[in-house]
Target: Phenylalanine-4-hydroxylase
Amino acid sequence: MTASTSRLSDFASKTGYRARLPDEQGHIGYSDTENATWRALMQRQLAIIEGRVCQQYLDGLERLALPEERIPQLAEVDRVLLAATGWQTAQVPALIPFDTFFDLLANRRFPVATFIRTPEEMDYLKEPDIFHEIFGHCPMLTDPSFAEFTATYGRLGLAASPRERGYLARLYWLTVEFGLVDTPAGRRIYGGGIISSPRETLHALSDTPEHLPFDPVEAMRTPYRIDILQPLYYVLDELTTLHDLARQDIMGMAHRAMALGMHEPRFEPAPRDGKASA
Model:
């Protein structure tokens, strides 16, 4: 398992990572070790995602043409996203507050922390690093349905109460981060939290986890942990379902979820010294 959007569940957590700052020309000079880490992550994920991820992701990955030998500059990614769906990246620290996160999404700016994990944490870290954000999420942001849903989610989050945001966070987790979709070619992955993780990529489409038809109210009622392989995934009929959902009363759905209450967790409680569930 690799980086997760811990900014959605535990902003107060401490992190040893710090975003790299650009020079006056907007260029970030990454070290040989950092570029080698990117290369290793790219090579192992490219080897296993074929036949497991949806075509929209593969199309986006081709459009982005991410370099394999080095960490891309955000401007390189922005040129493609702006032309495709009007999105661009936004450089942020490792962890950001809810208000900042929702404001960026509402304005079609996807937060990217400009650091990469250390070689000692190749398989898992709580903080969302640049590999998770760029390789995991940005290809999907070239898809209009996914891009529209993500922007709508940001606008809703800005106006939501703290309790409402908790329910919205679960919807985000089980779609944008850990969503699956049925396609004519079979069941495929579109969630960035899966795509950026070698273990999760193999686990998600195996017989081990439970797969349920996507229902936004049920997704909002489903607790999760960020530090385990997911025991449950919701499956879209098709990716345009997200486009349709963006035009529905999502906050009304959140209120129905609140009235119904949370489902029982499908996992053991998180360790007491860490807030790893929501």
Q: What stands out?
A: The two ends are 18 Å apart (CA to CA).
